[in-house]
Amino acid sequence: MKKILVLLSLVAIVAFVSACGAEENEGNSNNETSGTDERWAEIQDAGEIVVGTSGTLMAASYYDGEEESKDQLTGYDVEVMREVAKRLDLDVSFEIMGIDGMLPAVKSGRIDVAANDVEATDKRKKEFNFSEPYKYSYSTMVVRKDDNSGISSLEDLEGKVAGGGATTIYSQIAEHYGAEIKTYGNAPNEAYLRDVDNGRTDVIVNDYYLSKFGVAGFPDFDIHLHPDLKFHPTEQAVVIPKDADTLTEEINKALTEMREDGTLTKLAEKFYNEDASQKPEEEIEELEGLDL
């Protein structure tokens, strides 16, 4: 009888220890799961992060030179991502594509992330993770100098032709106010700006910094930034696959370091001649009734 009791006691102890071990392992497993994700593991294994960008968006992502080569791709978003990759001890490669295909490419896994002055909207956050913002801005319009293309308010967009990408927030805003959208695919800034100058289109609704840079790059065009209209404050961030939480955390760590040590400010001032990494101080009109 004593032998049976001893045996049962040993079985109970083994079962208890096994249960504790399983519980501990389960806890470790959960901790590992919360601290990693498949995309981040794949990127670490490859030693490289693949970034989608357009290469046609001055001064965010463009080629600095006549020939399109890897070394000549530059711009604020491009250099931000080069620095992020460096701080994550990764190589970086850029996949050139139009903005309309960029978000689907993140979702499908063709690219790891996208960086192309993409606005982090509430609607997009339902489908993607976003990093902390690396740029703050607002929307304005490029119009003809002589008469502001007949536009003095957002309501005056009705019946106008606006140049833009089919799926951009800016085109959604213009369309909401009654403009007809002329799309260009992955065309350079010059194509958009020239059409406002020659009257094929009336207006470009776009980011303030990008518009300012673009207009300055073509002084012979009869265009300027609308002197009165500043609306829709924006935050631009890295687009990351949904639930890739560790990848998001790692990119955010790098961006936080870059903000704290002044790297973001330095890069923003280099490309925009203003610190676009900080929120603008002026009052910007909020837009109502748009599901962006």
Write the layout of secondary structure elements.
Layout: H1 2-34, H2 38-46, E1 48-53, E2 56-57, E3 61-63, E4 73-74, H3 76-87, E5 91-96, H4 99-108, E6 113-114, H5 122-125, E7 128-130, E8 135-144, E9 161-163, H6 169-176, E10 180-182, H7 189-198, E11 204-207, H8 208-217, E12 223-225, E13 231-236, E14 239-241, H9 245-260, H10 263-272
Parallel strand pairs: 1-5, 1-6, 9-10
Antiparallel strand pairs: 2-3, 3-4, 7-14, 8-11, 8-12, 8-13
Helix pairs in contact: 3-9
Q: Please work out how many helical segments DSSP would assign.
A: 10
In terms of DSSP E residues, the strand content is 15-25%
**Alpha-carbon distance between the two ends:** 76 Å
The named CATH superfamily of the largest domain: Periplasmic binding protein-like II
Number of domain units: 3
Give the CATH level 1 class of the largest domain: Alpha Beta
Q: Kindly state the number of beta strands.
A: 14
Radius of gyration: 25 Å
Strand count, sense and barrel status of the largest sheet are: 4 strands, antiparallel
Mean model confidence by pLDDT: 87
- Following the backbone from N to C, one meets helices and strands in this order, namely HHEEEEHEHEHEEEHEHEHEEEHH
Overall, the morphology is globular
CATH topology of the largest domain: D-Maltodextrin-Binding Protein, domain 2
Helix share, percent: 40-55%
Query: Which structural class matches the secondary elements?
Result: alpha/beta
CATH architecture type of the largest domain? 3-Layer(aba) Sandwich
Low-confidence stretches: 1-35
